[in-house]
Amino acid sequence: MSTILEATDLTKHFRSGGGLFHKPTIVRAVDGVSFAVRTGETLAIVGESGCGKSTVGRLALRLLEATSGSVKFEGKDLASMDEDALRGLRREMQMVFQDPFSSLNPRMTLGDIVGEPLWLHGMGSARERRERTRELLSIVGLRPEHAQRYPHEFSGGQRQRIGIARALASNPRLVIGDEPVSALDVSIQAQVINLLEDLKDRFSLTLVIIAHDLAVIRHMSDRVIVMYLGKIVETAPTAALYAEPLHPYTRALLAAIPLPAPGLRAERKLLEGDIPSPANPPSGCRFHTRCPFAQARCREEEPALRDAGGREVACHFYETLPRADAERAVAIP
Ligand code: SF4
Ligand code: MG
Q1: What mean pLDDT do residues 96-117 have?
Q2: What is the pTM of this model?
Q3: Is residue 300 part of a domain?
Q4: Residue 52: which of 67, 73, 38, 37 has the closest Cα?
Q5: Looking at this predicted complex, what is its ipTM?
């Protein structure tokens, strides 16, 4: 399978605060992240808020400049592209944002919102753009005559459909969804996920779905990247990850998925400890302050992401930990 997007050693440090009497803090939002997205797959990037996953999504589309590292789209380095080349590439890579309430301009009609990328990229005549816009609205399950209406007239789920129609307008090959359903009611989430899956097949898209837990992406992703405090801690094919999570953090995330059996509800509370600040990440393994298996070495030495047979894991001790089926008994302090 070919690679559509490749990120190498991506780093994004933000400055925060600072003034006359104190230095600004450096927040290491993303700290040396490398991964490849294969053409046609659905790749999930998962982690708690503050782990850097949304930043990775923005860096991947160069909506944000990296502090260091590179992103290549089909072998072309985004950092070396001028504005023209980048604009051409933007047709190929689109983003669906988390919040369908704030990401749509309330003063624009649906027709203008969905049709704007066509206009920006100079695609078609005015008449063709109007027709295409109406077609896009019906592709995402809205009515063509909705083109005259405004976002506030629609529900959250419908607004996310508008966002998806806009993302599809330029015929992209890669779509990154930054928590595309987490602002929606649970009953609506499945509909939007089904829509994304249908569109993926229909338009041969490659999808990257960013999520804060492992529940939403279970049935739609082919592979999962798990991030913790700016680093990748585990990558694996989805089935393998669910069958046997290797990293203690992944195990805790999986154990935190709501279970249908009411008797097991108490076990959802496994990841309650606060995530440390990325401005001051723990030494060694960044997960050591919450890891039930941490040992002295974990505080001193950072574990590298290493091959674990078709998957990767960053833990000094993953081979010798108690098996993951004992995970229901694992409690994170
Ligand atoms: Fe836990 Fe140590 Fe593995 Fe980190 S390296 S996940 S602290 S056992
Ligand atoms: Mg986010």
Answers
A1: 91
A2: 0.92
A3: yes
A4: 67
A5: 0.98
